[in-house]
Write a structure and sequence with these properties.
Elements lengths: L1 E4 L4 E7 L6 E7 L8 E9 L2 E10 L3 E6 L6 E6 L3 E6 L8 E4 L5 E6 L7 E5 L3 E5 L8 E4 L4 E6 L6 E6 L3 E6 L10 E6 L29 E6 L6 E6 L4 E5 L9 E3 L6 E6 L6 E6 L3 E6 L9 E6 L5 E5 L5 E4 L2 E4 L5 E4 L3 E4 L1
Antiparallel strand pairs: 1-30, 2-3, 3-4, 4-5, 6-7, 7-8, 8-9, 10-11, 11-12, 12-13, 14-15, 15-16, 16-17, 18-19, 19-20, 20-21, 22-23, 23-24, 24-25, 26-29, 27-28, 29-30
Main location: cytoplasm
Family: Belongs to the WD repeat peroxin-7 family.
Protein name: Peroxin-7
């Protein structure tokens, strides 16, 4: 297992470059993001380990990042002062562009994978904004009226955008709809809602011992779109449960409920190669690989990795091939990468 220490900074997000499978970027913050500076690390995965290629310091904490889908050297970061900055790693010191419209911490940025001249951001100020890197102001503002921890465009439709927030809601927006009183929102799913097809407190269909309800509302911290099933979204958060939803049946509750983490789940990511496999990272210091039961209805934990030195707070999957071998995560030409709030980056 490869390891790199972000000395003096605590990691919040890690992403593989869409152009180079040996390059990752890490967004980090001093003092666990409570106060102090931030740093964007550009790391290379080599035969001799993880090496630092470059870094950029910022005046406030960095909480998320996204690689540009059109320029191989550009990285977007979300900052604690409400700003969004675009860095070019071919240049030194300063960002090539900066935007400042959010009133509180920006906690997520996501580049549109289909319409590649747009990206979105979400903030603790209760708004989501859609941007173009070529314009100085936002294109659209979508209010959620709740602290919004995660926002992302669908990888299947450039006009569909989703978000999860502190009010335990999964929201789906369609930017093609007219800007009316609904502010482009087309669907709101209570994440804590039970599955009405099963009696209260019945075992969940994934046989993991989780209950289908009733659940108390809890802050949702992360979500991700399935790369093969265009209507399936995974969510997770403070209640330690990972749920999958089919947005074609919003009233049916979660399709699967996966239980196993002992503390809040900080990040989930679907596999880019397998339709039923996702990874999760939690404050219980573990990363876990799950089968959501799409193919065989097992919904089981396939593997886990953790250690006493670091909280597992974020996870990314490379574009190169990753294979599941037995009960652990194997590699063929690429590495899943995780990291921790104690300042470590791991190539598993």
């Amino acid at each position: 297992m490869l390891e790199y220490r972000t000395q003096g900074f605590n990691g919040y997000a890690v992403k593989y470059s869409p152009f180079f499978d040996s390059r990752v970027a890490v967004a980090s913050a001093a003092n666990f993001g409570l106060v102090g500076n931030g740093r964007l690390h550009i790391l290379g995965l080599t035969a001799k380990g993880i090496v630092a290629e470059k870094w950029f310091d910022t005046q406030d904490s960095l909480f998320d990042l996204a690689w540009s889908e059109t320029h191989e050297n550009q990285v977007l970061v979300a900052a604690g002062d409400g700003s969004i900055k675009l860095f070019d790693i071919g240049l030194d010191e300063f960002p090539v562009q900066s935007w400042q419209e959010h009133n509180r911490e920006v906690f997520a940025v996501h580049w549109n994978l289909v319409d590649k001249d747009k990206f979105c951001s979400s903030s603790w100020d209760g708004t989501i904004k859609v941007w173009s890197p070529d314009r100085p102001t936002s294109l659209v503002t979508l209010p959620t009226h709740a602290c919004t921890y995660s926002a992302a465009f669908s990888p299947h439709d450039p006009s569909i955008l989703s978000a999860v927030s502190s009010d335990s809601q999964l929201r789906i927006f369609d930017l093609r709809t007219p800007p009316s009183a609904s502010n482009h929102i087309t669907l709101t799913i209570p994440i804590h809602s039970p599955n009405p097809r099963l009696p209260p407190n019945a075992a969940a269909p994934n046989n993991q011992g989780a209950q289908v309800g009733p659940f108390a509302p809890a802050e949702a911290l992360t979500h991700d779109w399935n790369k093969y099933r265009s209507t399936v979204v995974a969510t997770a958060g403070v209640d330690r449960l990972i749920r999958t939803f089919d947005i074609r049946a919003p009233d049916q509750g979660p399709v699967a409920v996966m239980q196993g983490h002992e503390y809040a789940v900080r990040r989930v990511a679907w596999s880019p190669h397998l339709a039923d496999t996702l990874l999760s990272a939690s404050y219980d210091m573990t990363c876990r690989v799950w089968n959501d039961g799409f193919n065989d209805a097992k919904g089981a934990v396939i593997g886990a990795q953790g250690g006493p030195r670091s909280w597992a707070a974020w996870v990314a999957i490379p574009s190169s091939c990753v294979e599941l071998i037995g009960a652990c995560l194997g590699m063929r030409g690429g590495l899943p990468v995780s990291g921790g709030m104690r300042g470590c980056v791991f190539g598993m």
